[in-house]
Write a structure and sequence with these properties.
By secondary structure, the chain is of the alpha/beta class. 17% of the residues lie in helices and 28% in strands. The strands form seven sheets. A seven-stranded mixed sheet has the order 5-4-1-6-11-8-12, with helices on both faces. The chain is globular and about 65 Å long. The relative contact order is 0.12.
Length: 424
């Protein structure tokens, strides 16, 4: 019989709707980060760096490119005969077939996979955070506390704590109470969505709560275990951790990479971040090109000026173009003379000549002000912006747009230009 001490279950099925048009046709864990990486590369790299060689990746929302990226796990040394990485989408059953309806329900539907490895512990991970963590150290803490469940927690500013599930602990880090996104939080210890369970405890709870609608770890499984006497403890994580669930936090996390001494270092040899690498030509910076404080991907050609940007692979930046404080993803073309300020531009976008992005004063977005804010211009993949138009702040564009869709050549601040047919 196969026996693994601990396996990981990586929840990567979410849409990430707060990233707006960036995830219109793409699962959030597959969104680019830091020029060459995908968000899911970080927890996968953490697993192999922590000595965890068996990872189940649970996918659901638009999984194609996520599945293609993961493949058989070669970049993370997870192409194993026993263990390795396994993609686990919802599947047809003889009775009660359904989509994953909650984080815990997704695990429940894969009990057979976990049982095959007969682990002592199961590590539950989210596929949409940027961080480096040694899960083996967390497991050692779990064992030393003789815990049934360990939650990784992170101290956030108290004024932001209402956005998270928070925990209240005693002086020994044993959790006494849970508060799910409280209006007036009594603690700033936020749950990171990273859990270690004794498999026997988790399996029993999943079976007992299998009929709970949209069964979730934070709302249902962990409180249920706690109420039934399980010892639940908090593991305080002190490193860098970023929930890139909003356009603002996603933009900030990318911009932090280009600091002279970045808080989050992608270049440490002892804790490398691995990704699927395409074979590309070297980057090229023309004699007319200027690059300062930026990350530039392989195969990118720069003929204009780039300052404080994160640029992906295979990007072309035309002569006379000026790009500042922006994220440009793989395969995008920026036309000659374009001026771009504080934009997030997804993959394979065509920006015309003499386009100006990020002009004028801010205004609340007319479609989704809770998403399109922070003064950003956000453009979804495979979009086109025609020559000579101007685009204001807190704006969203998706699809092949035409010049006559920009009144007087301007998409004013707070406006959205989204081709609904292209979202299907």
């Amino acid at each position: 019989m196969i026996k693994k001490e601990m396996i990981a279950m990586l929840l990567a099925g979410g849409q990430g709707s707060r990233l707006g048009v960036l995830t219109a046709k793409l699962a959030k864990p597959a969104v680019a980060f830091g020029g060459k990486y995908k968000i899911i590369d970080f927890p996968l790299s953490n697993c192999i760096n922590s000595g965890i060689d068996t990872v189940g990746v649970l996918t659901q929302y638009r999984p194609l490119r996520l599945n293609q990226h993961i493949g058989i796990g070669v970049p993370w040394d997870l192409d194993r005969n026993i263990g390795g990485v396994t993609v686990l989408p919802p599947y047809e059953k003889s009775t009660n077939s359904q989509w994953y309806t909650g984080t815990a329900n997704a695990i429940y539907q894969n009990l057979e996979y976990i049982d095959y490895y007969n682990p002592e512990y199961v590590l539950i991970l989210s596929g949409d955070h940027i961080y480096k963590m040694d899960y083996e150290v967390m497991l050692d803490f779990h064992k030393s506390m003789e815990a049934d469940i360990t939650l990784a927690t992170y101290e956030v500013p108290i004024e932001e704590a209402s956005r998270f599930g928070v925990v209240i602990t005693d002086e020994n880090s044993v959790i006494q109470e849970f508060e799910e996104k409280p209006e007036k939080p009594r603690s700033n210890k936020a749950s990171m969505g990273i859990y270690i369970f004794k498999w026997s405890i988790l399996k029993s709870a999943l079976q007992e709560l299998k009929d709970v609608p949209s069964c979730d770890f934070g709302k249902h499984i962990i409180p249920h275990c706690h109420q039934n006497g399980a010892k639940v403890v908090a593991y305080d994580f002190k490193g860098y951790w970023k929930d890139v669930g909003t356009l603002g936090s996603y933009w900030e996390a990318n911009m932090e990479l280009i600091d002279i001494i970045p808080e989050f270092n992608l270049y440490e040899e002892f804790w490398r971040i691995y990704t699927k690498n395409d074979r590309l030509t070297p980057q090229y910076i023309d004699e007319t090109g200027v690059v300062t404080e930026s990350i530039i991907g392989e195969g990118t050609e720069v003929y204009g000026e780039v300052s404080r940007c994160v640029i992906g692979s295979g990007v072309t930046i035309g002569k006379g173009a000026v790009i500042r404080d922006s994220i440009i993803m793989n395969g995008t073309t920026i036309g000659e003379g374009a001026i771009i300020n504080k934009a997030i531009i997804a993959e394979n976008v065509q920006i015309g000549n003499s386009v100006e992005l990020g002009v004028g004063e801010e205004a609340p977005n007319d479609l989704a002000p809770h998403i399109y804010s922070f003064g950003l211009v956000t453009i979804g993949e495979h979009s086109t912006v025609p020559d000579g138009v101007k685009v204001g702040k807190n704006t969203a564009i998706f699809g092949p747009t035409q010049a006559d869709e920009y009144p007087d050549g301007l998409l004013k601040s707070g406006s959205s230009l989204i081709k609904v047919g292209d979202l299907v």
